[in-house]
């Protein structure tokens, strides 16, 4: 996998997006538990599928950041005449996905340096993966290269405002961030506009999940592999007193349905000009 990955020998500056090696390891460890708690992933991916241009029938599609391959299998059902390629940076996810089928090829690789030929895909589908890519302009550039003219990039990502309740509660508890950092929606707008791809649609929509307690939320984030991947996060055990302070702070957000966790989801459909 290392030959396909961007050089990460320089540690990121504080405030940067997570190191991709850390992302890959975290999601590989989570592969077995991922599907059982992936309500958000399912809902967002289904919403993204609904946004694909009607009548789309690419010869080859790419599921970029395929994870356990859930949407690779959905794409295979929806596009039976197309050839599928599933790509992820986490070997553990691919090992989980491969026996379940859906794509002809399962490849370890990096969205910022795709191991695919130019003009080789008619559709790139990517649901909740590219938020982990520090160089999103490189992701768009690679999509432009790999798509054939008229091909479509459909992605869903997360932006600033995601898990703000948890972020604010940790800040009240101990002053640390603790929550993964994401790009602003405005950054997505600017980067997509400058990508050379035509923006068919680009919008931000909140998706709110509710949990009975803080433990349920943090357990789910850990099962998803999405817990606290930021550089500069506090190491070591989180002390009992800090957990009590976190729980007290988060309770201020409680609603009738439980403790809310808001995800700010970016949905985009872009097309390579003919």
Structural features, described:
The chain is built from nine helices and seven strands, in the order H-H-E-H-E-H-E-E-H-E-H-H-E-H-H-E. With 274 residues, it is of the alpha/beta class. It has a domain at 14-161 and 180-208 and 265-271: Vaccinia Virus protein VP39 (Rossmann fold, 3-Layer(aba) Sandwich), CATH 3.40.50. A seven-stranded mixed beta sheet has the order 3-2-1-4-5-7-6, sandwiched between helices. Helix 1 (20-34) packs parallel to helix 4 (91-97) and helix 6 (164-174) packs across helix 9 (240-251). The protein is elongated. The model is unreliable at 1-17, 30-37 and 227-237 (pLDDT under 50).
Mean pLDDT: 83
Tally of helical segments: 9
- Which radius of gyration do the C-alpha atoms yield? 19 Å
Global outline: elongated
Secondary-structure topology with pairs:
Elements: H1 20-34, H2 39-50, E1 60-64, H3 70-78, E2 83-88, H4 91-97, E3 105-108, E4 121-127, H5 136-146, E5 147-158, H6 164-174, H7 185-193, E6 198-211, H8 214-223, H9 240-251, E7 259-271
Helix pairs in contact: 1-4, 6-9
